[in-house]
Amino acid sequence: MDKNQIYAALQNVYDPELNRNLVELNMIKDVSIDNGNVEVVVALTTIGCPLKNKMKEDILNEVGKIEGVKSVKVQFGEMSDKEKEALFGKKKNSLNSFENTTILAIGSGKGGVGKSTVTANLAITLANMGYKVGLIDADILGYSIPQIMGIKGVRPVAIGEQAILPIETHGVKIMSMGNLVEEDEALIWRGPVLSGVLEQFMNEVYWGELDFLLLDLPPGTGDIPLSIMQEVKDARFLIVTTPQITAKGVAKRLGIMAQKTNTDIIGVIENMSYFQCDKCGEKHYIFGSGEGEKLSRELDVSFLGEIPLLKEIREGSDKGISPVVDLNSPVGKIYKAIGEKIIEDI
Asked: What average pLDDT is seen over the chain?
């Protein structure tokens, strides 16, 4: 047994948040061997890392497999500012290129159409389909993603001044203003400030490799949707509406704004399309019918599907328990079909 064998074993131990092995991240600061007793010194990106126990368990497991190892001891320290800078870059630079990431900006013409619920469930669906997914709650003042995703009260981890690590649940990495302020704190900010927060979420949060980054936009056609369309040049747009004529009319104005800024619209999702009686199976079109599909024709984009008005979706959002964790469930199948159409169109 020698140090080379131990370093080889440590290449199988990953930082769960950065998704890279500890050797590659230069987190292994020292390895010592004394008559079969091994000590590994690990420099964390932050000493308060919430997943260091997981890393310790993995180190004990991997190093313990080596023939001749009698015991394994793990010591934790913290990277220096220079080491963090070498890993994440200087604060003024973006930590992410998003070069191989499809950015989906999800908007609605008006509030109350279930856009955030659709965004959250779509993110979980794509993750369950095997994709690496991030989600930014860009509705800075009216955030609801923490509630829907079951992460209220959870704080993201800051690594000095270099980076912030997003919260992860259901395989989705998440950043929301709701995880940075107290629950009842009111934010009174103007458009330029809000756009600046979104820019920070894009550039100063370490997202790692992503296949999809979903942006849950505020409703309407205000500063933040317009800023994203102008600044995030490669963002693709997805519109959520309901069958109501008024909702469809406002959503159409949002679509026209996207077209004027040369933003590619992937398609339209109609939410709360109908209620299906759980006793007789009859569909009731409470808010009208066909307006989502009509909107897609008027904008000359794909109609991605209908999502019914279901009790389990509402209850899941209220309790922070996703109804799409199982893609073979009735709700899961609906979202999976929408996810597959999106993938076909990009």
From this structure: 86
